[in-house]
Amino acid sequence: MALLQISEPGQSTAPHEHRLAVGIDLGTTNSLVATVRSGVADTLPDEQGRHLLPSVVHYRRDAGPEVGEAALEAAAEDPLNTIASVKRLMGRGIDDVKRLGNLLPYEFSPGASAMPRIKTVAGEHSPVEVSADILRNLKQRAEATLGGALSGAVITVPAYFDDAQRQATKDAARLAGLNVLRLLNEPTAAAVAYGLDQSADGVFAIYDLGGGTFDISILRLNRGVFEVLATAGDSALGGDDRDHAIANWMWQHAGLTEHADRKLQRRLLRDARAAKQALTDAPAVPVQVLRPDDTVWQGELTRSTLVQLVDPLIERTLTPTRRALKDAGLKPKDIQEVVLVGGSTRMPRVQEKVEAFFGRKPLTRIDPDKVVAIGAAIQADILAGNKPDSDMLLLDVIPLSLGLEIMGGMVERIIPRNSTIPTVRAQEFTTFKDGQTALLIHVLQGERDLVSDCRSLARFELRGIPPMVAGAARIRVTFQVDADGLLSVAAREQGTGVEATITVKPSYGLTDAEIESMLRDSIVHASEDNTARNLREQQVDADRVLEAVQAALRVDGEKYLSRDERAAIDAALALLRNARAGTDAAAIKQAITAVDQATQAFAARRMDASVRAALAGHRLDEFKS
Amino acid sequence: MRLWRKLYRLTGQASAGMQADLAKNYFGLFGLPSTFDLDATDLAARYRELQRRFHPDRFASASEPERRLSLQLTAQVNAAFQTLKDPVARARYLLALQGVDTGEDTDTAMDPAFLMEQMELRESLAEAREAADRHARLESLRLRVEEDFEARTALLRSRFAENSEPARRQARNLVREMQFLQKLAHEVEELE
Questions:
Q1: Integer Cα distance of A356 and A358 in angstroms
Q2: CA distance A265 to chain B (A)
Q3: Which of A476, A554, A611, B106 places its Cα 20 to 30 Å from the Cα of B66?
Q4: Residue B121 distance to chain A (closest CA, Å)
Q5: A381, A384, A388, A394: CA torsion to nearest 10
């Protein structure tokens, strides 16, 4: 339909410099960074030409951490100081970690925020810090390859990640000095990589079997807009489990006792992975285990044994797949395309099973290891403003319901799962006892009715309610979820206006104090000159703000601003330009905040006019037809 | 009156900084008159248009105030769409705008004839669960509930068109009954 052309406040009309933006797939087993160059999205290799960075960090006593291949090599010799599959620990509490059992050979100690910390020779490290080390490595790779500071990054997360896990991912990016443009669901990124956004309307399934997580997403494309109809998954199921299944088989056949030491566990895992990969080309491969008493067990792993070992794991992926289809109200035959994501889908057996389930051949044209990073890079390129004409819009949903604890240990749902985000919902509650002056707001995520069955995200108190009889106070609780799926909660007593607000810091997230001390630590320990880096980051930010505001003023400055208001904004801009020319990062930051404040009313008026214009266009169109 | 004030506050709070008249009414947000009758396809088209223009992704490189406004606006658009696209939620909202509280939580009094009918339907549901021809029974039950729901939707349309105090009272009862039927339909679906 033809709509009135109006300028959109978010998009500058003036040509601008190409901004360096990347997509990062922060995976359980491997991580990748990709970018769009000359219109083509591809992953960036390291100096040795390797695209995949193993998501492994090796901490050393007298040197900085090793990341990637070097760390992987150290894993067998120095297992306690080599952290792998850390994504499984993101946003998890010490109790969850214990439930993972002996899959993880690390020693944990609880931190100030109940987030587990892993003991290493280089001190204790939280999963967020370990992830930040991986992200920092990818950031450096991208900046070295592209020759400049990154303006921003899109980081992918499993669609099934809850609020705590998303927040932890964002914290890690912040620690690594990345400006997060958006957290993007991995399956959505995969669909974008295949250009499904440009295809005809339809319904797609994204089957993502990665190293440590399984996700299934049902996406609907409707007139160029993606909607996630349903997501389901299992955040503790993936190729790692397959490796463990093979390792267990070797361990049993070698007649080992229950107390295999950690080094042996590591070696078994490494050999299991190698055997599995060799089986893609050969019908059978020899395997051996060096027992602690230096005797050797030798055996053979065949494809049919492998199928027996992995079939139950592949079967387990079909349960969430059925659930997602049911949530979307669809049958397997309704799916137009199936996209395979994750290195584990290379296995022919997986492809067979998926094809049998959906009754159609899945898409495999793009390397399943790279497809998510490539999609994220395409999205990052658009979000950074390099393609102002792009019409792509990704609508996402929250994967799990959000609610509050009410009397009797029950959960009252405020935002149901699969609600499109961003969203805002409010509900009214009241006091339980006469004269009650405070209320504990306990925020939960999950589908069950009992508090004990849901994940606790945060607790905060609303204080200063004037004493009233039970049931007389009217407390409105508002939940707001942003486009990254992150929640903030506000509570307000309606009669008195007493308010309390928090951005939900999940119980397993980092406290602000922890983040601050980590940032300080990273400044002390980093090899690069952090003052210079911080300055560069603030300069990039300043340029972004200057450009956005100037573009807006060019278009609408005359229309919506009085002489005085315009003068105030010009003054703030002049101060920012001045600070930008200097070398004081803090001064730049302050000047940016001042510009933001000075332009608040201007932004509101433009947005408002823009909404009217969008709808006016509609009406005009209808009159014509 | 009370519920209306509540809604007003919610929208006012969620969209601080916006001009009040645009955001205070879900219909207004979509550029539609406050009527029960609306075209689902047109509503969806308006929804997509608003998302396409105002989603936070469009403002990723914009200034902080613009990013915040876009978040608040699209959150509101999503909440409004959820309400407007469902006939029961839409009717409840429309009644609230007209000062009528449907009061599902506080007022449990219902038309006895309707309640009798509901009890019968629930008995059929319980029987169907155990029956050998379970699927056929569930299917006919589903059709029956669907019919009842559709009939009430049509009635609701005429009640809202009339715009009188008695018509509003009747609309309120219809909304409450439709809520029952929705719940029942959901349970049938779960079993199917």
A1: 6
A2: 45
A3: A476
A4: 24
A5: 70
